[in-house]
Amino acid sequence: MSQNASGPQVWQSPGDRKDLAAGDGLKSTVAQPQGRREMRATYRPEPKAGMNELMPNGTGSRPGPKPDQFRSFMRQQFADWSDRTFARWWKAHKRLKLLMEVGAIDGEVGYKAVTARATRANGSVNVNKLDRISEEIAALWVVRQEGGGTWESD
């Protein structure tokens, strides 16, 4: 290495990199970093052989559960809704589907009846009300399973 007249030290040739181990996995740079912040910006480890450069775990897939294709499709259908509104609707939808499976509501007819109760006069769905109704039905079902209360609909 030699000192450049303008400031930082510059690598002259690959032979000047004797201070770095041969297999350390660092890319060569133009200037040697002066501080820790510059080091982060200047040196980047090269991916190991066989690793996918896009994923840090090298498996080629992202960690966590796989994306739900139906949820993605429904998100496209309700593209004008905010993320928060869609998340609330999705939670209510999953809860109602679960209630259908356990028999708390009467299949698709019950699902449509609950959705109709949460629909406004202009035809739009009041998502907050749908979430509230589905939560109430789930709570009543739990109470009924515990042996208390009666099952009466509005």
TrEMBL record:
Top-rank lineage group of the source organism: Bacteria
Positions of the UniProt region annotated as Disordered: 1-70
Compositionally skewed regions (Polar residues) per UniProt: 1-12
Segments of skewed composition (Basic and acidic residues): 35-47
The protein, known as: Uncharacterized protein
Organism: Streptomyces maoxianensis
